[in-house]
Amino acid sequence: MGKDSLYDLAVLRIPSKNVNAVAEFGNSSKLKRGEPAIAIGNPLGFSGSVTQGIISSTNRTIPVESNNASIETQVLQTDAAINPGNSGGALVNIAGQVIGINSSKIASTGTGSNDDVEGIGFAIPIDFAKTVIAKLETSGKVKRPMLGVSIVDLTMVPNEEVKQLQLPSSVKTGLVVTDVQSSSPAARSGLEAGDVITEINGHKIKSYIEFSTYMYTELNAGQKVTIKYYRMGKTHTTQLTLGSKTFS
């Protein structure tokens, strides 16, 4: 029926005659650390595998990337074993209710040969997944807001290029516009390459991942926003109506 690659979620239609039972959704917002958690999936091709652990944290954030977009998304952390093949499987509570959708694990710290990590797995909270699922059921896609710019963290720009932007000494973070798509909301609002975005609707923007997280979780396509930016050392504001894009 639809899919959303940003959160790796899809909705399938199955003939009712082939469905013997339906899993009940739980409430992930009421979870507490230490509660039992059971991960179901097909790790390494071993179908119908079940592993048990606990909820280690209810408020972790991890980076998610898709179609050149990077955001920080909230996840449940569990020590129930999650391996390749578990992704997309259910994380359930002791009552058998689905409280999350298994997504990933940290397998290594990347610091050396003896850096294997165990017991750190993540799942998309079911309360969040339900909102995405509902949109996929009704329209087959999830529309997310779009500015129509290519941007890079100010902190990643070489010092010599930063000097050319003539920013006040107080401006240490923000997003440098490197390109503006023609006929996009950004183009219509007057934004140009070389502008440095520092705020959207009064929300300070310090990095690309903070920008995209705010865009995709707090704003909506078609919403009017106010952007504060610097151009050749002078501060400006502009208003625009966000466009939309989908991650299919």
From TrEMBL:
Residues annotated as domain PDZ: 131-207
Similarity remark: Belongs to the peptidase S1C family.
InterPro entries per UniProt: PDZ, PDZ_sf, Peptidase_S1_PA, Peptidase_S1C
Any one Gene Ontology BP term: proteolysis
Enzyme Commission number(s): 3.4.21.-
Lineage: superkingdom: Bacteria
Gene3D superfamilies assigned: 2.30.42.10, 2.40.10.120
Keyword Transmembrane helix: no
Enzyme class: hydrolase
Protein name (database record): Serine protease, DegP/HtrA, do-like
PROSITE patterns, per database record: PDZ
GO molecular function: serine-type endopeptidase activity
Record's keyword terms, sorted: Hydrolase, Protease, Serine protease
